[in-house]
Amino acid sequence: MPIDFSNLCFERLTNLKSPLFDQVIDIYNYSFPDSERRPINYLIDYLNKDISHLYIVRSETIVLGLALFNNIPDSDFVLFDYLAVNKDFRSSGIGTFIINELVKMTSNNNKYLLLEVEHPNFGSNTQERINRLEFYKNFNPDILKDYYYALPDFTGDGEVEMILLIMPEYNSRKIDKNELDKSIKHIYLDFYKRKLDDKTLNKILNNNEEIILYKDYK
């Protein structure tokens, strides 16, 4: 259905007892596979501690979409953790609306969004992964296509191969490896509850040297 974007409300949701938060959890649960979904109690704990920030776009009392991001201490990066759109309003521009708002807000704070996007060379849902990357390319991100990165599988011992994207455009064509490594460690230890000897974390830290930014993932 057509949406009047001028009447939408984009806001940070802090009241976790609100009926709006119930809608958020419902959208979150059906939008992501088990392997990529962190437990609800983790999300609530981080939101209460102000580590994670939850933003929603709503039309009156209906949540149309959500975005969750995490602050990374002593870093120029903010981890863009989840983006999801109400299944009744997909392909309506809600995802684009949310990202534009977040990029603007992040840029005003002199920060960069760091996105984890499924790598199209792995997994069985190849076309879905390509479509997702093509969607993000509309926002002119910088892409770390040669940087090995993976998510821990939250349902087992495996890993989910990802590509990292940065928005808005970074201030250089290269990233200092030590700075990025420091941010990745925070993500794994603080957000994913892993330890320093985690095999996926060490694979990330040991497999990357010079980090060059590109405009395409191919």
Terminal CA distance: 34 Å
Please indicate the percent range of residues in DSSP E strands (runs of 2 or more): 25-35%
The biggest sheet, with number of strands, parallel, antiparallel or mixed sense and barrel status, is: 7 strands, mixed
Q: What is the CATH topology?
A: Aminopeptidase
Structural class: alpha+beta
CATH superfamily: Gcn5-related N-acetyltransferase (GNAT)
What's the CATH first level?
Answer: Alpha Beta
**Low-confidence stretches at least 5 residues in length (pLDDT < 50)?**
none
Task: Describe the SSE topology.
Blueprint: E1 9-12, H1 19-31, H2 40-48, E2 52-59, E3 62-71, E4 77-85, H3 94-108, E5 112-118, H4 126-137, E6 142-152, E7 159-167, E8 174-175, H5 177-191, H6 199-207, E9 211-212
Parallel strand pairs: 4-5
Antiparallel strand pairs: 1-2, 2-3, 3-4, 5-7, 6-7, 8-9
